[in-house]
Amino acid sequence: MIAIAMAEPVHIVAFTSAGWGHIISLLQLSLSLLGSHDRLHVTILCTAESHTKVLKQLDRHRHLSPEVRRRVQVLCTKEEARPACVPEDWVEPTAVNAPGAAAILEDLILVKGNGAVGDRFRITPRIIIYDLFQSATPLTIRALEEILGVPHIPCLYLTPVPTSIMLRFAPTYSSPSSRTTGRSEWDSYTGISDRFDRFKAQGMPDEEAFIAAWQNAERKLIVAPGLPPMYDYEYHPQVWAQSWPPGMTKRIEAIGEDYKNADGYITFGVRELEPWDNDVFQEVLGSIPLYPVGAQLGNDVWADDHPAVRTSYSEDERKVIDFLDQMQAERGQRSVAFVSLGSVCWPIRRPELIQYLVESLLAADIPFLFATASRFTQLDQDLRTKVEAGGKGMIVPWVPQNTVLQHPAVRFFLTHCGSGSVVEAITAEMPIVAWPYVGDQTIWARQPGVELHQVKSGMRGKPLGIGGLVEETEAAIKREMAEAWGAMMNDQRYEGFKTEMREIKRIVGASAQCGESRKAMDRILQKYLS
């Protein structure tokens, strides 16, 4: 990155949400900015729900020097806290923010928080970078600025996803080049909230109305450069199976409008991989600058976690590595399937899908490691017993994913395609079998490998954009899984996937070092921090 001039210490606040992928992404971006100057300081702001996760992830950055660590602090909001400056009838614009964010932001702005919130820096923030699920942040900041009479602090909206997915959240666009305003032809989310309200008015319970709203899409075929054609309902393929909270309906649809409150918009887009999407999305944003900073690979943490380098493991981690070592000794290198659906995703309403998955891997005689980290995990004990008795599989609640993906026994990664997991797969040059659930996962799923379509839920008989129909039968699902395993175990096809993934990693890395992603980071530094 460019060398920026700082006559005095500069402070960034980075406000994360609770998801692991969001925490990892925001922390890595913050540390990348931190490395640009030795007078830069970063506060990671989080809720009580995510506090332990943030500290745990920060501890994984073992390469950080003591000097750099002194320039990072983690502060936690308190739900009952209230700004001292506001009148009694003031209502905090919380949206999805945890209540209490305004109080800690007030203390940071006024540099009076040493005793109240633990602020060690006592430097008014120069910018605030906030996760898309903390979308009320700029409204809170502007309300505080008006009351306190202080200068404006720019707020940058972070969506840790490719730019292309954000076009799917753009219900309207305003194009300076064509001087037109209207409905985006790439939108896949408009109307969900209205349908939810209509179904509720018809007497449906919340959960049923939610599912019906998401599945009763317009059957619009969305075609965009660089992506395969997809019908609108394919952008949320596991809504029926996952049983998401009904409140997510308005939250997801609002993402397409929340950017209007931001001073800047950060994505993990790599311009070299999606030039059209970045150009079009800048038109959508209008005067709000877009900063596609690229996927944050975290190479230092990655190198520290390599099994050839790591010397310290917990007892549970040791069991995982011992299993992989054993499979490598018995089956050879690149013989094991690694399966993880992340910390949230799980087909709660279709438990048979997990049964089909495990039975299919056993039938194919492919050793597997299955991390069931989702807080919604429901796994039949008979299935666990069957796996344990076979000696070819291991099911555990959590694994050191970076280390597992770099283990020479692992051949491919079956993933829900969360942002963190896919970035780690790219870093490992690991082909994927994609089982996306919702949102950005359907775009991340386009990485080298194979995508499962027959597991899509509540879509029986519906056409796929790439051709064919979703059958949703046991026979169709197991047939497709067997074909996916066959593709991954075929040396010629597998090496093709590896080569493609290696090239994506090269492009992402080059962009971060001296390409468009670095230019985007430099623009942030120049505009807000120099």
Give an account of the 3D structure.
This protein is α/β, with parallel strands linked by helices. Among the domains are: 151 residues, Rossmann fold; 209 residues, Glycogen Phosphorylase B (Rossmann fold, 3-Layer(aba) Sandwich). Helix content is 42%, strand content 14%. The strands form 4 sheets. A 7-stranded parallel β-sheet has the order 3-2-1-4-5-10-11, sandwiched between helices. Strands 14-13-12-15-16-17 form a 6-stranded parallel β-sheet, with helices on both faces. A two-stranded antiparallel ribbon has the order 6-7. A hairpin with a 7-residue loop joins strand 8 and strand 9. Pfam families: UDPGT. Keywords: Transferase. This is UDP-glycosyltransferases domain-containing protein. GO terms for molecular function: UDP-glucosyltransferase activity.
Summarize the topology.
Elements: E1 10-15, H1 20-34, E2 40-46, H2 48-59, H3 66-69, E3 72-76, H4 101-109, E4 127-131, H5 137-148, E5 155-159, H6 163-167, E6 172-175, E7 180-183, H7 192-201, H8 206-215, E8 221-222, E9 230-231, H9 239-242, H10 248-258, E10 264-267, H11 275-285, E11 290-292, H12 299-304, H13 315-331, E12 336-340, H14 352-363, E13 368-371, H15 381-390, E14 393-396, H16 401-405, E15 410-415, H17 419-428, E16 432-434, H18 441-444, E17 449-451, H19 474-489, H20 491-514, H21 516-529
Parallel strand pairs: 1-2, 1-4, 2-3, 4-5, 5-10, 10-11, 12-13, 12-15, 13-14, 15-16, 16-17
Antiparallel strand pairs: 6-7, 8-9
Helix pairs in contact: 1-2, 4-5, 7-8, 14-19, 20-21
